[in-house]
């Protein structure tokens, strides 16, 4: 986490320095453009040094889901927890009801992900009138989900931008799709 803070700090200093090149920010004690250039250069150096530092890999000890089997090593992790004061049935019904046009910038961000190309209906090209959870799990042969189990699936449909030519990567994606189609547990589940 400290590496992310240092990269953002470097980018922030670089931004402040560039603004100070145009007009020195005296309230930040940047009185000349030369000091602004030094702040921008210092921010750039801080960000580049932090990005050049090695990233440590973490491993899963016990594979509990398909994502653990598919990607047993990772470099970055996040955990978000929110307590919802609602019965499971109401919580599940609210999630089931969410449509693409109700999520701010959903269509814009997925259009960017698709590089503006149209394609078949999937999570990256979701119809506005259909719930997103139905679109995401369509064709995955999932058991009917109740309030006790909310399941999702990852989508690898893309635009071809940055497509990896490595055979291993292609095989891993194909394996994940086989797992999803055969009804094996999906990569994540919320109890």
Plain-language structure description:
The protein is mostly helical. It has 2 domains: about 1-50; about 60-190, no CATH class. Helix content is about 45%, strand content about 5%. The chain has helices spanning about 1-20, 35-50, 65-70, 90-95, 105-115, 130-135, 165-180, and strands at about 60, 75, 150, 190. The chain has a two-stranded antiparallel ribbon with strand order 1-2. α1 runs antiparallel to α2 (about 35-50). The two termini are about 30 Å apart.
Please tally the helical runs, counting DSSP H or I stretches of 4 or more residues: 7
Cα-to-Cα separation, first versus last residue: 28 Å
- Class by alpha and beta content: mainly alpha
Order of helices and strands: HHEHEHHHEHE
Basic shape: extended
How many beta-strand runs?
A: 4
